[in-house]
């Protein structure tokens, strides 16, 4: 383990990161050269939202790529802001999600786009369980590429998931399947879908287990680790490769737990994170906390992929799982989720990233913050920034807030 | 030979320095407009305070720096202005529950619990509306000195409201009020009201409770003080030297770190 790497990050690096780079590198390489190997196999490329029931697409031998994950890649590579400007010149507002702008900008600015951009889609697949923006964003994509678009509409869950919600989504799944049969020229294969779901299920369980291991004091991981190692469960969900990947990752985390190794040496404070990462400042931002021996032991964002896959008929189970996604839930649900995590992970304070891009995630945060502090007595702070557009990040403002927040914890 | 502690607050517009003794009493304080030369002026102010009090530099046991320039000033520790402000005010006014601090480029609201512990705080976003800089821009548009705003606002018989929250757009609004022939006093009162409304919105998120106190350079402006007390429907306390309270908190923090 290199000392330099630790100095740059401010905490203990993971060996599995090498495997992450090769796994995701391979995925983007396959994406880039899809026309050479995928076309001859009649393997269609779909541009897919992160909350889409990708298992159904995989059952039709589709190669999915994720503009949202790609947005995160652009953010980490610090090219998002330039790509956003490109989209803005084409008429997209600066108030639009920065993943959307990065993605749209990357279509024309191949010179800046990491991995040469995403491969041209054969169709677009959207599920609005994560936000409403995806509908208009992907509609633009369908228009730009002149390809068909498949939409799954999930009703917003005010209280609990009801039978009629699941039925509504399930009907759309059935419809989607018959449309995909026509579009791909392949027969729907239930056994294949079941196999794919079992891969999803296995990687989700591994992901849940890895998250749970962070309940250990000191925590074996700091949250930027989860943000980075999230990529395979988003992009490779439903594959054996994802399962293998998370087995390796779990192995390393288990070893740390067994040996009492802390991600942040001398862990003094345990924090919770809410919202998507600030990709272009990932380590620089968290360093302000690690310097003060504060470790982020849990978050709500990476928990989005730790959803329970419901048992029973595979399609029904998928319908329920994808409808119950946390961003599709009420303020009370979101607050309760944080209250529970604070208890389970023995959290001392929470940091909310008010993400200019992600309205459904950020809009209710102030209210959630109030409810959580009232119920737990644990303080929380709101940091204003953006996940990919660095123009929305004001260094001094952020530093003052973070520092003042940490000082309040230190006095206690 | 006595021992002393120094607090330095390098803000976006001004530098404030406070020297205290081991009992926490203020021995001397100074304020200077800073701009680019924050650190240089802070050092200069420190020299002046030491000279006036007849104290040698090595009698300063510890120094704490705060404010935007805190990272670069040679100090024993840097502490955020939010913690310093809370520490300074809790020392001077133990009954205060809510601090409204309006500085050069940011405004913040701090809620205090027992013994000056911070319960919650809120800061303005990346926008200078409702701050000292906002008042300067408006004064410039009206061709008056920023110091004149307070007295003029108190003379207003009617208030020309400024609805825009953006400094640039608010300036255009002021210019259109001038064009419409509104009175100078009325426009100035409108500007003060807009600052009060902005800070009220910020404060409401953390449920402000009396006693409420206003600090920062803008607290010197009687027009804003009047507008803030009207908006909060409460009596607003203003310390005698509202600009130096964070620097005082920094000096007190210097005292506590040396005692630890």
Describe, in plain words, how this protein is organized in 3D.
- The complex is a heterodimer of chains A (412) and B (260).
- Chain A is an alpha/beta fold and 412 residues long.
- Chain A has one domain (3-411).
- Chain A is built from 19 helices and eight strands.
- Chain B folds into two domains: 1-93 and 243-260, Nucleotidyltransferase, domain 5; 95-238, 2-Layer Sandwich (Nucleotidyltransferase, domain 5).
- Chain B is 40% helix and 21% strand.
- Chain B is built from eight helices and ten strands.
- In chain B, the strands form two sheets. In chain B, strands 3-2-1-4-5 form a five-stranded mixed beta sheet. Chain B has a five-stranded mixed beta sheet with strand order 8-7-6-9-10, sandwiched between helices.
- The two termini of chain B are 21 Å apart.
- The model of chain B has no long low-confidence stretch (mean pLDDT 93).
- Chains A and B meet through α19 of A and α2 and β8 of B.
Keyphrases for this structure?
heterodimer; A: 412 residues; alpha/beta; 4-stranded parallel β-sheet; B: 260 residues; Nucleotidyltransferase, domain 5; 5-stranded mixed β-sheet; 40% helix
